[in-house]
Amino acid sequence: MSKLATCVLITGTVGSGKTSTAYAVGQRLRASQVPHAVIDLDELRRCWPAPPDDPFNTALEAANLRSVADNYRRAGVTRFVVAGVVEGAGALQRYSEALGCPVVLVRLRVDLHRVRERLLERHEPGEERDWHLSRSGQLDGILDEENAASITIDVSAEPLDSVARRVITALNWE
CA geometry: angle at 10 spanning 62 and 134, to 5°? Predict the structure, then answer.
């Protein structure tokens, strides 16, 4: 069994660069030969239809995260880099329990105009794009109000590799 894992959860509004940043952090850890896993929470809950009482599939996400984290830990992972939205009371504790280690929450802040540009590039016109465009400002406000992050990084004009370096430095993972 590997030593106790440490975990970072990279959060932010839709289009803030959570997943891209997580992958960039993973690349830096790989270059330093640090055993790690990058986990995209969106993929762990991607299932249709979602139950009416759990529209974001959070129960499925937690169950999958617990299983995936256990498997990675058995494979020798010592760092978890997780990308996803952390919203609502108790969410951080649920992630910590599912991962089996304390979680440091890093929030990516980005100018909402830049988020809109990213979402327009990423999504075809239609209902899904409209939902993301509407949700971005709403979610940004929710994350501001909750103020749960230990570390906040403004990534509006910063290159991805620089953001990844800042995350690793803030966590003392160098």
Answer: 85
**Per the domain annotation, does 10 fall within a domain?**
yes
Whose tokens are 């089996």? That residue is 100
93: phi then psi, degrees, rounded to nearest 5: -65, -40
Give the residue among 103, 147, 132 at the shortest CA–CA distance from 7.
Answer: 103
What's the number of domains the chain is made of? 1
CB 15 within 8 A of CB 115: yes
Kindly state the tokens that stand for 88: 């609502």
Q: For the chain, what is the largest distance between any 2 Cα atoms, rounded to a whole number of angstroms?
A: 48
pLDDT tens, residue by residue, 100-150: 999 999 999 999 999 999 999 999 999 999 999 999 999 999 999 999 999
Q: Which domain CATH number covers 81?
A: 3.40.50.300
0.85 cut: is pTM over it?
yes
Written as one letter, the residue type at 154 is D
pLDDT at 4: 57
- For the stretch 7-20, pLDDT in tens is 999 999 999 999 99
Q: Is 105 among the domain residues? A: yes
* Interatomic CA distance for residues 67 and 100, integer angstroms: 10
Range of the domain at 58: 6-170
